[in-house]
Prior knowledge:
single chain
Amino acid sequence: MKLADLPAHAAAAxxxxxxxxxxxxxxxxxxxxxxGAPARHPVVVVxxxxxxxxxxxxxxxxxxxxxxLDNDCRLSTGSRAICxxxxxxxxxxxxxxxxxxxxxxxxxxxxxxxxxxxxVYQFELPGAEGFERxxxxxxxxxxxxxxxxxxxxxxxxxxxxWKHRLVGLSQDADRARLTVETPDGRYDLEAAxxxxxxxxxxxxxxxxxxxxxxxxxxxxxxxxxxxxxxDADAPGADADADSGAGDPPxxxxxxxxxxxxxxxxxxxxxxFHPGQSVLLHKQADEVWRIDFQLxxxxxxxxxxxxxxxxxxxxxLLGRDADIELVWASVYTFACLxxxxxRHGRVxxxxxxxxxxxxxxxxxxxxxxxxxxxxxxKLAAVLRGQAPDALLDSYAREREYAADENIRHSTxxxxxxxxxxxLSRLYRDAVxxxxxxxxxxxxxxxxxxxxxxxxxxxxxxxxPDRAAxxxxxxxxxxxxxxxxxxxxxxxxxxxLRHLQGAGFHLLVFEDARTAARLDAxxxxxxxxxxxxxxxxxxxxxQAHADGGHAVAQADGGHAVxxxxxxxxxxxxxxxxxxxxxxxxxAYLLRPDQHVCARWRDLSAPDVVAAMRRALALDxxxxxxxxxxxxxxxxxPAALPS
Length: 640
């Protein structure tokens, strides 16, 4: 199949099985250039998984021509990465496929932790109310790749080359040179920059003689994707019992079957799999993902056989459960990363740069957020809007994010899979106490769930002025929190108005807003900076007259509709999340991260902050250290 034909096939009656699609190899024109005269491209992305596709789409949407190489001709099979966090869904919105991801996926907001056959506690995820996207959506990785591939097919300046294996990579001060192996033989091409998104066995990393360092875990886990057709005979609580929502700790284990709600359930030492742990998630198409801890001595090939898997599944679901085994795999894992994510003109993202355990859904989410961070910076450098040094900030910010993810993943893995008698004694004591005492539940770690990293220490941030005291989650370095607003209609969302390719200036109106925005626009243009998109929000108290005070301001200047989005904060959530009062302003990077904020808008301040965010000027003072407590994390900070 041609990639261009994928959207039509997917839209046909009955849809499409993305796992069965094979894309055609096409001989590129670059292949026919003579020796010593390779084609030159601005960016070559290596690896068409979720990270590479997301980055290539981002760059193409910014108007850059992109070549995406993949050594295969198929999308992934099996569930693999399934939990996609709120921030990642917001990135997919900006890439043009968030609605379909959210519609296809299974949203969930409740988690339960069990010890043997009793519930220790349950939790509700913050960040679910007052945001367009849920805290998490469960969606098999092949759907994510398929929907991203459909979006890629719609972009004429994005060329995906299937069956193109990277076999050579070198660079000098001016270019990177790639040698690619295809069914027609090898050819060379050049790129200003290469983005290596080619997974944990990265060819780009190996060709440069680089490695990832960290810690491997001596344990094995079985993934079983199972379709449950009937739960009439499922064991657990009585047939007329509900799912247990709202019940106190200590109630009997609720039933598991086709009617089980879409929740995250984690068992320590359950009676159906004694001495080990089990994780359960519902996915799209009524498929359930079950992760069984097996122990290091398990034989991976043996454990993948249906005759070994089905008895384990039926021990959970019931001897007579009507089930279909959809896919299975046995995995081990490590928490590791490269020392540096940037090596000259080659930048590493996703699993090529870092790896974590699967507990907490940090792998794919952090990889897509790598792409989100890198895309706008590459575009700014290639357009001459920023110096090459801006790409160093990608490495520093995402290395910090990787360290944060590895720290949480390592702690979760140590709790879930204790390897010494003392660590097991501690874990079991915490779980036992957790059934009766709330303080102990905070110590239970079944995987601290993924949230967007707050780059509080980034050199791109402008520190708050001493006189500008702020509260709330929207600190410099944080991803901008969403909030309900009214614009053209009564139901809208802030982040829908922050999806353009450039910087945005969110201003909470007062009588001087129009004149000050006028001054900001002139100053930004005079400084030769990229265009700045204003977004003006009226605070709840301004709604009494039914209009926007900004429509007519000092000197009769109005804010033309073509220049500024006008939003109403009808519910007051926008003001609370941004700790806003009249005149408050936030400068947002193209990846929707806050880079500066003020109580009083000033054109020189905006110009200085944009220059700093583009690495055009060095920081005026050392950047503030990141808060290791996570106090600045957005409202969707999630418990285990």
